[in-house]
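Follow-up to my post from last week.
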Amino acid sequence: MSWNTFGRVLRFTTWGESHGPGLGAVLDGCPPRIALSEEDIQPFMDARRPGQSKFTTQRQEADLVKIMSGVFEGQTTGTPIHLMIENTDQRSKDYSEIAQAYRPGHADYAYDAKYGIRDYRGGGRSSARETAARVAAGAVARLIIPEVTITAYVCELGGDAIDRDNIDYGQITQNPFFCPDAEAAKRWEGLVDDARLAGSSLGAIVECVATGVPAGWGAPVYAKLDSELAAAMMSINATKGVEIGDGFEAARLTGEQNADPMRPAPEGSNDGAPQFLANHAGGTAGGISTGQPVVCRVAFKPTSSILTPVESITSDGEATEVRTKGRHDPCVGIRGTPVVEAMMALVLADQKLLHRAQTASG
Amino acid sequence: MSWNTFGRVLRFTTWGESHGPGLGAVLDGCPPRIALSEEDIQPFMDARRPGQSKFTTQRQEADLVKIMSGVFEGQTTGTPIHLMIENTDQRSKDYSEIAQAYRPGHADYAYDAKYGIRDYRGGGRSSARETAARVAAGAVARLIIPEVTITAYVCELGGDAIDRDNIDYGQITQNPFFCPDAEAAKRWEGLVDDARLAGSSLGAIVECVATGVPAGWGAPVYAKLDSELAAAMMSINATKGVEIGDGFEAARLTGEQNADPMRPAPEGSNDGAPQFLANHAGGTAGGISTGQPVVCRVAFKPTSSILTPVESITSDGEATEVRTKGRHDPCVGIRGTPVVEAMMALVLADQKLLHRAQTASG
Amino acid sequence: MSWNTFGRVLRFTTWGESHGPGLGAVLDGCPPRIALSEEDIQPFMDARRPGQSKFTTQRQEADLVKIMSGVFEGQTTGTPIHLMIENTDQRSKDYSEIAQAYRPGHADYAYDAKYGIRDYRGGGRSSARETAARVAAGAVARLIIPEVTITAYVCELGGDAIDRDNIDYGQITQNPFFCPDAEAAKRWEGLVDDARLAGSSLGAIVECVATGVPAGWGAPVYAKLDSELAAAMMSINATKGVEIGDGFEAARLTGEQNADPMRPAPEGSNDGAPQFLANHAGGTAGGISTGQPVVCRVAFKPTSSILTPVESITSDGEATEVRTKGRHDPCVGIRGTPVVEAMMALVLADQKLLHRAQTASG
Amino acid sequence: MSWNTFGRVLRFTTWGESHGPGLGAVLDGCPPRIALSEEDIQPFMDARRPGQSKFTTQRQEADLVKIMSGVFEGQTTGTPIHLMIENTDQRSKDYSEIAQAYRPGHADYAYDAKYGIRDYRGGGRSSARETAARVAAGAVARLIIPEVTITAYVCELGGDAIDRDNIDYGQITQNPFFCPDAEAAKRWEGLVDDARLAGSSLGAIVECVATGVPAGWGAPVYAKLDSELAAAMMSINATKGVEIGDGFEAARLTGEQNADPMRPAPEGSNDGAPQFLANHAGGTAGGISTGQPVVCRVAFKPTSSILTPVESITSDGEATEVRTKGRHDPCVGIRGTPVVEAMMALVLADQKLLHRAQTASG
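User reply:
Got it. Predicted complex:
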């Protein structure tokens, strides 16, 4: 089946294709009496919006979100919030070739194998345009978890990693790469521009840090915070890996190296939360938050649409070659950054609501 | 809440703690008329079973599975299959110390923060003993997908990777590490033995390959095969990362390097499936299987239980130091291998059944 | 939480309020390659549409459905189908009084007790206008089960039952009451007109019969066809009871009277299905369809909005009296008829898809 | 598929057949730190237990519940609670005939049509023995809602209704019929005895009242309290109808007759809850509890197993006649009473936990 809903008690369902009339998210389970207007959502849409620099696709979309339900006199009512975004700059002619030939690395062949039909215009449902709906839903989710601050950034692009001593969150919005390291951002300009001009593409790794998550969110066994985050991130287009905390590096450490020692809460602590001397675990233990920052990293493959011809087959099974023209992101991971943030917000908000149901009865 | 069920239409629910009377899995949604007896399950239990070499925990568990329901005259009936395993070698006295002090890296603190109570005996519900129930359920799942062959192995241990030119699946059962590279297996003996004697621990990476998966399993958007696998694998104890195909390496490739070119089915092909010239994607595109081998890798952190004292706090918030004695796996990733296989089987069987529901109506 | 999704593998989520910009249903899990256009849906919308006779609310809504996604070149693609309906005739001023006072029998007080906020315009989310989205989704569901014919009708209105010997399905569309008995329809004109002129209201019982359902749909234990239908019907506004087959009457029969004897398939039978000599059970046994017509009955209470003053309280807890002016159905059960049909279609289509997943493996 | 789980955040999964080694319920989502032992559960099991009078089946089952997980040192831990009950008095030989012939009114034919296999011993999974697991789970659910008192009783048996002026809850446990009217109980002795001796059977209607439910439980739209209760009750074996409040009678009332007028909370009220002057609605409005008693009624058909021969077919499709010998309840509705109570408890506890998640954020 098609399974277009995510979440357990805060659940959102997205609909829409790249070249249909629009797309949207129905967010169900949002608590009532949260102040909400389109202005709370739009900045996040704008961060993800295409066409803002030469480093992303030149498709121009206003990505204006309209709240269709669930809000009354400026407040959520507890009923489903439908967030709708019109498609305005679909150029169906750009995509006529892919009706016949399967673009390698894209979902074209797999969709046809599954469904026997596909909306080939811009990838249809498999287009990363679907993520606009997630960003809209994520903006609402943030309002459910005001105690949490979520920051995502590209920490590696085309194999070129940031210098961790150079991280300055203030830089993230100062360059077109969501890069927290000003030096790296400069280098990446050249990298991405070269790829773009060559019709090539690059991968990227996005890191996301959530601070302010209290201890106790997440749940054994199949709703572990790690598992929920992994599912969320790996549902984003073009992702191929996810790590929590040290991730794959942890597999190379000894138990001593990987330990996160704890100390009693410092004198004068507000919340009495213990102090951790390290965070190899990325903020979870046994699938439950520990009060440390929740840290995850997501690997985005290079955009599959490239100008270099690649061997492929037609929908009739004949040999062909595909070069993908059109307006593509040379590095899809860049615009994936706000999507990663949105998914982090959606998972955490869901877990917060679930956790609430778990306090002692009586 | 506690969320101990996994799967969409083939769903299993596990119950049980490390030191309770036993544990089990209720597998719901298994198709009827599949031949099934305890003998089909036991070999997989035995592969995961503790105490079989000096490289794993010395806890002795027979791990005999009993089919409690859902099978009649040797065949599944379509009703829930309850698989139960008794605990026989719980030594509660071994664990008395952890009642008072939080073991760093374990779920102790997080569980207390969440629930205000924890079954501290052997980690209770957070113990990796829960995975025995998954292995039992996974053995049944395999029977639903006879067309698929699943092979998992440790591909890196303590930072020491196998030589991929040296992979021989026949070796996997010939050493205590599920290692497909006989040379590496020899080196790992020393590595693990040193760690064990030092009361230290090591991480590992487990790779799992499923061949025979036809094109078309998986589903947009939030039930992508990648997403389901990520959730499944990251729900296993001690996992901190998951990759599909090239995973994080893909983020370092260009679009050209990462392409998986396709060719028409070779002459005389049985199934008419196209030929892929590479498998960077790990067998999925757009979240749907392509007919190539499904490949995933899972990072296991080093066992948190080590003899070296680590700073921690008591359940009353006082400073203390914890050294964990008792019977632990020096490298929990090793015995994680059959669990990874089981989760792969459970995800694929679920997706196969879902896919069946999706053929054209009429 | 708010839980606005129904179904197991064919799942629809509705959004929208009575006086917002519109409402809709996202139908997920519809199989691909089913011919679908707005023309397939509109007739069902028209049957439910308000303002068509003096016996229903005078609110005028075009109830034009727009397919926003999931259909490409006239066929379903397997991706979510979003069906949207604009609200065009909201008169918010009609409802200003109910902002202050709780209408007895309506959801006003309960919503405020739950959410601490409510969209009081026309009942907001609790308005029967939500059912327009169900009727749209139900029209698509029918296309998934072309083998099934669904017919609903009012079998009792204001305590006046039809004569079962007089049932003629051809009559159902010939009167404004969905009444299959021409005589009863005539009597009901007077009944409903009197109630309407008096500002009073009447209850009704809707019966729904689905023929062509093969044996084997439904599933033990908590997805019994009976249970699914009961949940579906009791989610419709103003319903207070549901029966399958003889329902409450069955509780008054002996085992002999209630028996549904079976005989071998008659000579020349196409499908080899056994012959049943009675259908007290209403087409199910053990929660699974038997191949007989699936029969259910749904009780609708009288519309709560009446002109007679009823004691109530204000949202500040003060005593008041409420008389509800405005445009209401004197008998909400009448327009409930197409909604009952839609829910029957949605449940059966869901069960058909589920059943498909259950055939033997291999 | 088989769908053996019920509930949204408090979810239970049952397993087991009539003549297998046992049966059980895995209850997931129970809050932690609730005192729980087998003694809390056993009285409810005993109420449902067979073989306690000549008016129920003579099968003798101790129905001893064993808590297998989820409880530590006498308190729930928030992890799954597995409640297991051994089968001790299966006499497989009693049921050998039904291997060949379909018992009319039973699930035999439908199961075979669906699965192509059935455990014919005592009805297998379709046996009412499954309800023992529900009663066990329901006993735990009650502890989650200590503010609620649930009382179920038979209000009509074989068409003979209680006198509502004669209701005395103290009588319910004083007769073998869960009858609150001592006069009716006397009459029913004769009724049931006659049916029993004649090898016939009778239907019954069970009424269930839950007091103490605060306003605000339940949720629009597809998780309405009415809908959840309807699904719960109609999943019980032999049920054919469910009503909330006045139910089908409400369909015969006018809006004036059906109104539930409200008044401000009486002076000195503890909770400030408004006073209702009637409860036609049965404690819900718009699917959400109003603070009034939640009232539902469930129709049980007469036991299908009767001594009178009924025409049927063999599993090979040949004509035959079936008379069902063996140990059956002459009126299955009687022992359905504790099951109805259990389902009410499970639904309300689930909704209480859900409601908790819905309070304002911050």
